[in-house]
Write a structure and sequence with these properties.
The chain has nine helices and eight strands. It is α/β, with parallel strands linked by helices. It has a single domain, classed as Spore Coat Polysaccharide Biosynthesis Protein SpsA, Chain A (Alpha-Beta Complex). α9 links the parallel β7 and β8. The longest helix is centred in the middle third of the chain and has 18 residues.
Length: 246
Amino acid sequence: MKTAAIIPAFDAANTIERVVSETVERFSGLGTVYVIDDGSRDNTRALAEAAGAVLVVHPQNRGKGAALRTGFLRAWEDGHDACVTLDADGQHPPEEALRLAQSELGSDCLVLGIRDLRGAGAPRPNQISNQISNSFLSLFSRRMLHDTQCGLRRYPLPAVLELGGQDMGYAFEAEVILLAVAAKLPIKELPIQVLYPQDRTTHFDSVKDPMRVIRRVLSTLHKTRMVSRPSGDARPIVHRHRPSDG
């Protein structure tokens, strides 16, 4: 399976070069590494391209959801079967992105990374916002979802494009989960390691963005008629052990 890495980036000059170079090294022979520069005002573009990424540019900032959709379409057009998304701020180690890319969880599955936010030292507002989002989406999907805001995921192509997600911002990732449930696209989960360095820069607003997520979820529920209800035990399969090196 040809799997791309997609890195949406906005004003990420402090971290993008390292993230790209490490991802390019790990995805060698597996797929292309794309950086979707979402209207950066610094030198993110030059650094990403110099580090080996294929650069796709939004002249103006459009939001993470728009950047992801641009990346999905480009990866599919270039012949990839799936893509792994990771953030440009260094939160997601490229070796974890590779582990998702190589996991044997089914090429047709949406694979969600599960973070241990408390163990990783995530800011308290981020932990609270993720708990709220998890509870909200689990309730309406009737699935126990352990991490609905993690940006480290593996998406099947072109299935994710066919879901028709519309949100331009961070709420796109929650929207995709509900659309996948409604479309009966298999969802699986894989625990991952993440990093929260003290100098990490994030554009996620822990107050405003969760409210935008809730609004998008309510809109998606209306569009999907409260989401198709799976029968039986529909909880995602959580693989708790790392694959062996052999």
